[in-house]
Amino acid sequence: MPSKKLYIKTYGCQMNVYDSTRMTDVLAPLGYETTEQADEADMVILNTCHIREKAAEKVYSDLGRLRALKAEKGKAGSELILGVAGCVAQAEGEEISKRAPFVDMVFGPQTYHRLPEMVAKATGRQRVLDTEFPAEDKFDQLPAPTAQGVTAFLSIQEGCDKFCTFCVVPYTRGAEYSRPAASIIAEAKALVAQGVRELTLLGQNVNAYHGDGLDGGSWTFSRLVRALAEIDGLARIRYTTSHPNDMDDDLIAAHGDLPQLMPFLHLPVQSGSDEVLKAMNRKYKADDFRRIVERLRKNRPDLALSSDFIVGFPGESDADFEATMQLVRETTFALAYSFKYSRRPGTPASVIPKQLNEEVKSARLEALQGLLLQQQKDFNASLVGREIDVLFAEAGRHAGQAMGRSPYLQSVHVQVGDDARIRAMIGQIHKVRVIGASANSLTGELLNPQREKAA
Ligand code: 5AD
Ligand code: SF4
User: Fold this and answer.
1) Dihedral in degrees, nearest 10, Cα atoms 242, 247, 251, 256
2) pTM for the predicted model, two decimal places
3) How is the beta sheet containing 198-202 ordered, strand by strand?
4) Is 203 close to ligand 1, i.e. is its CB under 6 Å away?
């Protein structure tokens, strides 16, 4: 079969990153190989994000450029198939078809397994719009995953039933669905057999997992994690993104019991004000969050936290914002993502009358990000002089250097020797002493260069 080139541009969250790899897997049997350059592609797919306004706007500006590329290719006698996938496609499918009629395929996140049929139609110059939530299980229809290194994502849960008032996810990704444990464990084993040592379990609400267990009953998230921890060769397990209300006793205990569970947890809090949390429908108070963190840290003293924050939610007062700053000062985060509230059509918060103006939102975001960045730098600096486990993933930027990941997901650059030595270390975990830190990465030296640490 002649080889064709596929370029996928991924916006937004890790779920989309995972989905893009699965689309690549589905299209490989049709002869598509991935490329990093849009202008040499026979097919371009934009895997889009709808979570904030800016993310959605970018899609339309990218589409403008692709329209020109498609026209240019057409003149030269070759074809370019254009697809828009992901959450913008799900939410605004009809509108994309209208605003950008040169797009051949518009399809939502639940339909990737039907890509071969869509491509056949598009090749016959038929336009495709598929934003259904089909009855069949997408995951059962997808081919076995191909590992692309020593770390991999594994989607275990999709959708969300929580309906935070600011969020489009319950509308674009639909109701909560948990994959059966058997199919998750099989996918994990297949990835480990290909050399994967670290898995990140993905879901919009990953710790709300409640899938069919191996014993016929329903399994909780911690039960699933405990089963995955038994896979030989799987050294590290992470998960994202979680909700504070689903941090149940056994999951908190698992953070103490399972050395495979990395001591780095993404736990979005959104705000430190009880009033705002209530208006967001988060269903916890700031003190509930503090207590969860306290219990986690008691079980796993080296635990570091990452979180998400929204500033400028409708009605947020100066005192509400100060409550968020106070929570951040007390808790301390190793990493955080913070956003200005973005009004999303169709969500309950978008029609609250007390919308804040841009200046207030910008000033609050700047203050919060200043504090969070300082905490991130302080956290990285606090590791200097300490010994950490590094999972080596690839050659570093400089000769003789290898790059790996710390338990806290920072990249760690280590001078290790010649190319053969670097190649041999990929996929291995070694003890490293941290000798330098910046805001985003660490440098270190190997402590015991000869031996891999027993995983
Ligand atoms: N405006 C701003 N930020 C949002 N997020 C979700 N919806 C919105 C919105 N409408 C943020 C939340 C969430 C993260 C993925 O994106 O902080 O945790
Ligand atoms: Fe959105 Fe809230 Fe569901 Fe997270 S828990 S996906 S923020 S509705």
Assistant:
1) 100
2) 0.92
3) 151-155, 198-202, 236-240
4) no
Distance (Å) of CA 49 to CA 52, 57, 59, 105, 334: 8, 10, 9, 16, 25
Q: Identify the residue whose tokens are 């016959």.
A: 124
Instruction: Give 1-46 pLDDT, tens digit per residue.
Output: 668 999 999 999 899 999 999 999 999 999 999 999 999 999 999 9
Q: Would you report the helix, strand and coil content of the chain in percent, each value rounded to 5?
A: 40, 25, 35
51 CA from centroid of ligand 1 (Å)? 6
Most informative mutation of 167, 202, 205, 338 for ligand 1 (most atoms within 8 A of CB): 167
Q: What is the pLDDT of residues 368-384, one digit of tens each?
A: 999 999 999 999 999 99
Contact (CB, 8 A) for 411 and 442: yes
172 C-alpha to ligand 1 centroid (Å): 14
- Ligand 2 centroid–CA 163 distance in Å is 6
According to DSSP H, which parts of 229-387 are helical? 249-257, 274-279, 286-299, 318-331, 358-382
- Render pLDDT for 271-292 as a digit per residue (tens, 0 to 9): 999 999 999 999 999 999 999 9
- Predicted local distance difference test score (pLDDT) of residue 146: 85
In the predicted model, residues of the chain with pLDDT beneath 70 are 1-2, 135-136, 449-455
Question: Which residue out of 207, 243, 313 has the highest number of ligand 2 atoms within 8 Å of its CB and is therefore the one to mutate?
Answer: 243
Q: Say how many Å lie between the CA of residue 328 and the centre of ligand 1.
A: 18
Q: Is residue 47 within 8 Å of residue 10, measured between CB atoms?
A: yes
